[in-house]
Write a structure and sequence with these properties.
mainly alpha; 7 helices; single chain
Length: 267
């Protein structure tokens, strides 16, 4: 068991990582803060009296959180792709599982904490600036869309599942692509989505003769058919639970495959 995971070894790995990459993380935080400020300025300039409506605040939050997550995670294991750094990474006194776990924690939990702290810190500064000049600023905690449900699935749960999947896909891309991992991973994700939507639409059109009013966007979602002016809903009981389960399974599988890709590089 100690060959797979050891707390002392894991803490040494974390210390070595921060000593090597602390400067890069600091610069990344400053860049992210600048992007958040820029987005707030942009949405404020497009609004009368330079106010920032609650929906636009949430837009800034989602764009920065998800976009930065994808970029950061797609680069987290890029050191294993560079000939000069690959040998250094392989010689670190840590097991393969510890190296993967540390990369996973930094890109998943560490990033989430850092990004949220930065966003709300910048938002606080923006709120104080707007208040000093008499501009209205809505409270983000009152955003009712977060309490809503989309087809019986809470919006918050959907956002969490999207976050998990984006992280898993970007993590896999960081271990697959040697150069320009962020761009290639984004293109791969776009190709997967477009291919899925195309095949999904063609498959339902071929299987059902009545006019399809609304094809399911994802597996297990309801299918709406229209025949003779009457709309029929075709679904399975508790389909949203099956959809959530499928999303979690797909995410975990990508994490597992990513771990095995790291093992291949060290093998």
């Amino acid at each position: 068991m100690k060959q797979v995971f050891n707390w002392s070894r894991f803490i040494q790995l974390a210390g070595s990582h921060f000593r090597k990459d602390a400067k890069g993380y600091l610069i990344s935080c400053l860049v992210l803060a600048g992007i958040i400020v820029g987005l707030f300025v942009l949405v404020a300039s497009l609004t009368p009296r330079h106010s920032v409506e609650i929906g636009k605040q949430f837009f800034v939050y989602i764009i920065t959180l998800y976009g930065s997550l994808f970029i950061f995670t797609a680069r987290v294991f890029q050191a294993y792709q560079r000939p000069r750094e690959d040998l250094f990474q392989l010689m670190l006194p840590a097991s393969r599982f510890e190296k993967f776990l540390w990369g996973w924690l930094v890109s998943f939990a560490g990033y989430a904490i850092c990004a949220n702290v930065l966003f709300f810190a910048v938002r606080y500064v923006v709120v104080q600036y707007c208040a000093a000049r008499g501009y209205p600023m809505a409270d983000l905690s009152d955003y009712r869309q977060l309490q809503a449900e989309a087809d019986n699935v809470p919006v918050v749960l959907v956002l969490v599942l999207v976050y998990l999947f984006l992280h898993a896909f970007a993590l896999y891309g960081s271990l697959v692509f040697r150069k320009m991992a962020v761009l290639k991973t984004a293109l791969a994700l776009l190709l997967v989505v477009v291919s899925y939507l195309t095949v999904n639409g063609m498959l339902y059109a071929a299987l059902f003769q009545p006019e399809i009013e609304q094809a399911p966007l994802l597996p297990f979602m309801p299918l709406f058919l229209k025949d003779g002016g009457i709309t029929y809903q075709v679904d399975i009981p508790n389909w949203h639970y099956w959809l959530v389960t499928l999303s979690i399974v797909a995410t975990v599988l990508l994490w597992v495959v990513s771990y095995h890709k790291l093992r291949e590089k060290e093998g």
